[in-house]
Amino acid sequence: MMQKINEAVAFIKEQYSKKPVAGIVLGSGLGSFVGEIEVEKEIPYSAIPHFPVSTVEGHSGKLVFGKLSGKDVVAMAGRFHYYEGYSTDAVVFPIRVMKFLGIEILLVSNAAGGTNPTFKVGDLMIIKDHISFFTPNPLVGKNISEFGPRFPDMSEPYKKDLIVKAKAIAATNNIDLKEGVYCGVTGPTFETRAEYNLIGVVGGDAVGMSTVQEVIVAVHMGLPVFAVSVITDMGIREEENVITHEEVLQAAKDAEPKLTYIFKELIAQL
Ligand code: HPA
Fold this sequence. Notes:
By secondary structure, the chain is of the alpha/beta class. The chain has one domain (2-268): Nucleoside phosphorylase domain (Rossmann fold, 3-Layer(aba) Sandwich). The protein contains 6 helices and 9 strands; from the N terminus they run αββββαββαβαβαβα. It has a 5-stranded mixed β-barrel, surrounded by 4 helices. The longest helix has 24 residues, at 245-268.
């Protein structure tokens, strides 16, 4: 694994020599954020040694390097989900590569279903903690000490100081921010009504099919994480609530400007 990461990193550094300070992972329907970056270099995933390649036609992912809020950043245009059939190693590979490219902070977004009845579609929820018992833990297997310790502490997976900064940014700009616990599931089915209820009962405020595996490896490597869910549907509220992928994408798109603003301001303050 370490050798694969090193080869991928060496290849990228040949193409682009600057060290990005922030890595950005964008969720479903949140991809136009990439348009905010003054692009200096794009590298398709398919060109990078050992990088997972999207199996879905027309889904050509790439790493986008450039300036955002005056800082050097790298964004993943396209992420890998466990439900697509990727191994856990593949899902987290880009996060490890970005860390070894030198990022000092990881910003993550996702689309999620609300299980907290006080939420509504279009809300942004700062992830303050997560539940990750449903997808395989990416650290299962021989520990690679170059990444981090065997038994990583998870008492602060989402950095408190970044949460404080984000709340201040939101408050001064009249952006309503919720805060809560994200529960990671495998998908690709949306949850049954009973499952949404269960997740609410066990302490989840939102549920989604990404993020937790990425965050676990980031924490393992000592990388500070800030993450936001866009609440794209309310699984539990209405008796007749049917959830479609289209509705999720539309809600994410509508809420994206608020998320973009917070990410840009956070990066400006780095
Ligand atoms: N459940 C799981 N994943 C999701 C949802 C949901 O309701 N909405 C967007 N991603």
